[in-house]
Specification:
Layout lengths: L1 H10 L7 E6 L14 H4 L3 H8 L2 E6 L9 H8 L11 H8 L9 E10 L5 E3 L7 H11 L8 E8 L2 E7 L30 H18 L7 E8 L7 H5 L3 E4 L3 H9 L3 E3 L5 H11 L5 E6 L1 H7 L3 H12 L2 H6 L4 E5 L16 E7 L12 H4 L5 E4 L3 H8 L9
Parallel strand pairs: 1-10, 1-11, 2-13, 8-9, 8-10
Antiparallel strand pairs: 2-12, 3-4, 3-6, 3-7, 5-6, 11-12
Helix pairs in contact: 5-9, 11-12
Length: about 400
């Protein structure tokens, strides 16, 4: 994969053409047992379908067939990085997403407030998606927890999400998560994954134990789980590889953090899709690559709300003409992974993708959904292959070889 990035860096050229990559988080689904249709197949999407008719379409594996990706690997693939070679932990992404200044040696973890029953079993991994205001108040209480030899900093992110940053000498991210990522289980004890991980594992377990004591009377947020322990990574820069002036428009902090790690500028935006489109319009002349992230398709899928996910797809469909009106030379529409509402979580299923531009070779696909895109001209590719195809269609890659 390093060879691919090196090749792309060699072939990439600066041009005025513009690429918009619209990522519908968790867009892929599987058929509902009552209808035999996925969320995309159920939704009324006249604009996405019209775009598919003038695009080249296909299916993409975020990592590789059969592997269920997290959000970070899913997006790294879309940016052209091999997720098996380049890894960024969730904790770092959440921290950078809220502009927390990580120091060298810090270990950051993504935290979820959760609901525990009387036996300490997780019954809701998201504590009913409590408000950011409630999380902020609870995070302030947890900041007072004393852990021997380690400073612990807790900050609210959004809704039930927080970051927990461990700061001190001799810390490492080579430890396991406490989050089983399933209901019906107890939070797990953090274990070391390397010889030098004992201090970090002990600090994490000590913090969690004291945090549970603080939270015990704060139902539904009477529990806490941590995952994605990580330290700052060192990745080749997105703009240096592709010779692009790139920006990210995302309402959720984690995706801003991911874009920041690879070197994109972060455009502040509001919480709605219309806010994001307005941010795109306002900054369209300043950049030539735009990563636009749409979260509701993933959140509704994780909550198992099939009809709500359908409605969120239809909401997104309504803004497609506004993006097309800007006249991007290449418009990519895809997802970072599948989140079937039937499964209430991420899955290994491939994701539909379409690429529209003046130099694309349109196929016979006339609908943007999983079943239709199976027959598209792009065929079945990995997510890390999407960016080179987008660059080529934007006339941003020189010829390889004599």
């Amino acid at each position: 994969m390093k060879d691919q990035l090196s090749l792309l860096q060699t072939l990439s050229v600066e041009t005025d053409s513009k690429i918009v990559m619209l990522v519908l988080d968790g867009i892929g689904g599987i058929p509902h047992p009552d209808t035999g249709l996925t969320e995309l197949e159920t939704a009324a999407t006249p604009n996405l379908d019209a775009l598919a008719a003038i695009s080249i379409c296909g299916m993409s594996d975020p990592v590789m067939p059969g592997i269920t990706p997290g959000s970070a690997p899913g997006h790294l693939g879309l940016f052209g990085y091999d997720p098996l070679e380049y890894y960024i932990g969730r904790g770092v992404l959440e921290a950078l997403g809220i502009d927390f200044e990580l120091r060298d040696g810090d270990v950051a973890a993504r935290g979820n407030f959760c609901t525990l029953d009387e036996n300490g079993i997780i019954v809701d991994r998201r504590a009913g998606r409590i408000s950011t205001g409630k999380s902020t108040a609870l995070a302030e209480q947890l900041c007072g927890i004393d852990v021997e030899g380690v400073e612990v900093i807790v900050k609210a992110v959004k809704d039930h999400r927080i970051i927990v940053v461990f700061r001190g000498e001799g810390l490492t991210d080579k430890i396991t998560d406490s989050d089983p990522q399933r209901v019906g289980f107890r939070p797990q004890t953090v274990e070391r994954l390397a010889v030098d991980g004992s201090k970090m594992a002990e600090a994490a377990n000590q913090f969690i134990e004291k945090a549970l004591h603080v939270l015990k009377n704060h139902h539904p947020a009477n529990g806490l789980v941590l995952r994605g322990f990580s330290q700052k990574p060192d990745l080749p820069g997105f703009s240096e590889i592709y010779k692009l002036k790139a920006c990210a428009i995302a309402s959720y902090p984690m995706y801003r953090g991911l874009a920041k790690v690879v070197g994109m500028d972060i455009i502040r935006t509001g919480q709605t899709v219309q806010d994001e489109i307005q941010s795109l319009v306002e900054n369209y002349r300043k950049y030539n690559y735009f990563f636009v992230h749409y979260k509701p398709t993933d959140a509704t899928g994780e909550d198992g709300k099939f009809e709500r996910k359908v409605a969120m797809i239809e909401e997104l469909d309504r803004v497609i003409p506004q993006i097309q009106a800007l006249g991007p030379d290449v418009l990519v529409v895809t997802g970072d992974h599948s989140t079937p509402a039937v499964m209430k979580g991420h899955s290994w299923h491939s994701v539909p993708v379409m690429i529209c531009g003046a130099f694309c070779r349109p196929d016979n696909v006339n609908s943007f959904n999983e079943r239709a895109c199976l027959y598209g001209g792009l065929g079945h590719l990995t997510a890390s292959q999407i960016m080179p195809v987008a660059m080529a269609n934007a006339m941003k890659l020189e010829k390889y070889g004599a």
